[in-house]
Amino acid sequence: MSPTPPKLEAAFEITNPLDCDIDAIIAPILAKSSESPIVNFVPANTLDGKLATDVPGKAVPLEDILQEMETVVVSHARRNAHPGFYGYIAGPGLPTDPMAHAFVGALNQNVIGYPGAPGATVVEQTVIGWFRQLAGLPDSSEGAIVSGGSVANLSALAVALYSAIGREYIQAGLASYTEAKPVIVGARTTHFCIQRAALMLGLGAGQVVVVEHDENFRMRPDSLEKTLLSCRDQGLKPVCVVASAGTTVTGSIDPLDALADICENNGIWFHVDAAYGGAGLWSPELRPRFTGIERADSVCMDLHKWFYLAFDGSVLLFRQPELARHVYYTRSDYVQFPKQGTPEEYMFFHFSPELSRRFRGLPAYIAFRYYGGEILGRNIYHNHECAAYLAELVEQDADLELICKPDLSICCFRYNPSHLRDQPGIVDRLNRKIRQRLQEGGDFLLSPTDVENRPVLRVCIVSYTTRAQHMERLVHRVKAIGEELSKL
Whole-prediction pTM value? Predict the structure, then answer.
């Protein structure tokens, strides 16, 4: 009896919704990107039940679905491009992004490497090459564009770990390593994703050894040297030093060149987390502050932070890519590409745990080619100028206290009037309330932040829409709220 072929009618029920006007959907969102409030906060139960909670059965008209998105998502989206959004290091998105991301969706490329996505792979290799040049790493350096700084840092630290303890433990496992206990070394200001990486690598979150920082929140080279000696005296094996090129809280840049000297002298992997600050390399004025990044064994820089792009993407670079390939090379029944093959056999998954991945490099390629480094670099420097101007305004005001001068585009300060300086608890409560009042006002959004266990007003400027007048308005508003609350 002959097999019965399946009926094909169902295939024709997948219709194309693109007869709608995509521009008409996107344009109003972009038009409101700088309008207040920055976030329309409502209690979570206000949104409960506004979406279909049962597993979808019958088809629903596209207009109904778009209305649901307007009600729940668009109306309550955080406007990262707002000139008063200073809460988190999140790129505003460039005007080329909606088109570029639609391009990515239409192409639907799984960019694991050249065999499955030849054109996309070449585009991403080109973008990675641009970042290699920005960082000053040698032409032989390679890498990949992963989802974000956390995955980039994890990926780099795994390579640092197994390069330090020995390649044989890639198969045998960390539990088989019976010599000195491996640890990661970083400043107190290092991003918390490093502790998470230590956890996921099997070292333990508590195995990140802390180095002291100076008054500007930069890692102290003398403290690093003492820490490395202390580790060895305790039977610990430092496998990597993590330096920051733009810390999350204050935007400080560690003294990279001096730290590179110490790592080189001690034979320790030198990783630079430039997830936020790396965009400063595009500014001729800021670039000298990164001297030493070119000596790193690995570097990460996020596209969706100060490079202004929409989410998501982090460029991860390895000075010696063969060391990464030793860790991440995998061969299976259906994946049989060599560790180091021809250009036609090139694989990005030899540099991180990620396998399937979308075409993250395309929005960057389009935006960087369209705007050019000169325009983007000038905007990046203007962000720094705004932060520096804010610092000057704070220093000139007797009621305000500057935490440290900005290295990049983050400025932290406190409302601290002279008549309350002998009552730090009251000042702390005032600063917390000022931040909340700013958010409620809708024109400025700052995230809750502590420096040395004291609440501060942290202003993180990573949007090309922010101008000097916004710094002036912010200071005026902080003082007005502070004075009002002081009278209560």
Answer: 0.93
